[in-house]
Amino acid sequence: MSKKLLFTILVTLVLTSLMLSACGAPATSAPSTTQAPAKKTFTYADMTLCYPQLGAESDWRTANTASIKETADKVGAKLIFSDAQQKQENQISAIRACIQQGVSVIALPPVVEDGWDAVLTEAKNAGIPVIIVDRSVSADSSLYAAHIGSDMKLEGERAAAEFNKKFPNGASILELSGTTGSGAAVGRAAGLRNKLNANIKIIDSQTGNFTRAEALPVMQAFLQKYKPGVDFQGIFIHNDDMGIGAIEALKAAGVKPGDLFIVSVDGTRGGFQAMVDGWFQADVECNPLLGPQVFEMALKLMNGQPVDRETLTNETVYYPDNAAQLLPSRKY
Ligand code: GYE
């Protein structure tokens, strides 16, 4: 090897190692005295939260939307809100638009449980944490940060306990269920079946999609098939709005308040009024006011702080005896 070539190789080696250390390659020599720059702590002013709301199907939903909007205003965070009109494909496009805009956090109330894997993977790949709010998803839990919402199965179990208390000698009941495939309907149906005494039979179950308008014809069809008080003694209704729709059908068919034992879910003002009027005998609480918890968790996620994977809302059961007294203080 010529001297010249050896010199060229040496110079190249020295230059390369200098360049590497300048690029941040681990330098073993020359101890550094400078400290890593302090990590920025994010505040609500830095936050853009995406809330692809599933719809506006019920008073529960209206209260949930209001809670999210009010909290965003209060803490001073930006909110990207949309209404998917109970269609999963609309929620998915809204999420994709939020990913494109580079939001800080996505909080998703999923209309149904299945079919979220692809879009949740897209959010994860974009580094955007997702909080599942209200209903659950069936997707692998590695695809989202946490879930905040109600224990829908427990709500169904609480309803079952009311029927068991009322009908110790057995009965037949109908079920007016929520949106097919939604975490709320699946959980409530499972909870009911889990705890209902063997001598209480669910003779029919149909969906009213959580709305007044859709529950009315479903109840009318039930009344064509089954005679109230003879073929069935009670109804489990998955939310108050459907209950209010069902009451219209019952009234039109000449059924009087108290002829049937009706248990509903949510605890909205409408549900309380139905208890005051004698139509509902119990209303299982489901709390929609999730805004404060959602924003608090979103900020923690932005700051890389640990969060609880599952936050369940504390809830109770309301009864007619003090419904009139509680009604004026109900927030939704
Ligand atoms: O019970 C119903 C609404 O997912 C808990 O959705 C929610 C349910 C609620 O339409 O009123």
Short recap of the structure:
The chain is an alpha/beta fold and 332 residues long. It has eleven helices and twelve strands. The chain starts with a helix and ends in a 6-residue tail after the last helix.
Broad shape: elongated
Q: Biggest sheet, strands in spatial order?
A: 2-1-3-4-5-11
Structural class of the secondary structure composition?
A: alpha/beta
- The amount of helix comes to 40-55%
CATH homology superfamily name of the largest domain = Response regulator
> Which residues sit in consecutive blocks of at least 5 with pLDDT less than 50?
9-32
CATH classification, class level of the largest domain: Alpha Beta
Number of helices: 11
Average pLDDT over all residues: 92
CATH architecture heading of the largest domain: 3-Layer(aba) Sandwich
Walk me through this protein's architecture.
The protein is of the alpha/beta class and 332 residues long. It has two domains: 44-150 and 288-313, Rossmann fold; 152-286, 3-Layer(aba) Sandwich (Rossmann fold). 42% of the residues lie in helices and 17% in strands. It is built from eleven helices and twelve strands. Strands 2-1-3-4-5-11 form a six-stranded parallel sheet, sandwiched between helices. Helix 2 (59-75) crosses helix 10 (291-302) and helix 5 packs parallel to helix 6. The longest helix is centred in the N-terminal third of the chain and has 20 residues, at 3-22. The protein is elongated and about 80 Å long. It starts with a helix and ends in a 6-residue tail after the last helix. Residues 9-32 have low confidence and may be disordered. The protein binds beta-D-fucofuranose. Beta-D-fucofuranose is lined by residues 57-58, 60-61, 134-135, 150, 184, 210, 239, 241, 265-266, 286. The site of beta-D-fucofuranose has 14 residues, from helix 2 and strand 9.
